[in-house]
Automatic annotation (TrEMBL):
This is LIN-9 C-terminal domain-containing protein. InterPro entries: LIN9_C. It comes from Meloidogyne enterolobii (Root-knot nematode worm). Residues 3-114 form the LIN-9 C-terminal domain. It comes from the Eukaryota.
């Protein structure tokens, strides 16, 4: 396209007319560019639709998007709950405390997943 424009400018400077073959070639390039432009617009429209479909999920990450962090957070909260409750009960068996902590962690995970599914269904 650039070389065609340069050639057209030279022809124009020297006062010459554009040859018929030149006009046809130039018109074909313009038509090809228009086709490419329409394709790009179509692709951009599709990309925009896809982006808009993804953005709610990307901007509002759920705890389940990162399962290891989610599990670790629930374990930490469960440990804090057990520690707080055990300050009054004074249970000394480590295996029992670990079991209770694991069960509370599981309950916290289930509660969070259930709340998230309920939120998404509304």
């Amino acid at each position: 396209m650039i070389s065609m424009n340069d050639c057209a400018e030279r022809m124009n400077l020297f006062g010459g007319k554009y040859p018929h073959e030149f006009k046809i070639k130039f018109a074909q390039i313009i038509l090809d560019l228009e086709t490419v432009n329409k394709l790009l617009e179509s692709y951009m429209s599709s990309i925009h639709l896809h982006y808009n479909a993804l953005i709610p999920h990307l901007s509002n990450p759920t705890p389940m998007d990162r399962p290891e962090i989610f599990r670790k957070t629930c374990n930490t909260h469960a440990f804090q709950i057990v520690k707080h409750c055990n300050s009054e009960l004074n249970v000394r068996n480590k295996r029992i405390l670990h079991l209770i902590t694991s069960l509370i962690s599981l309950l916290l995970q289930l509660r969070t997943i259930g709340a998230e599914k309920k939120r998404l269904s509304h």
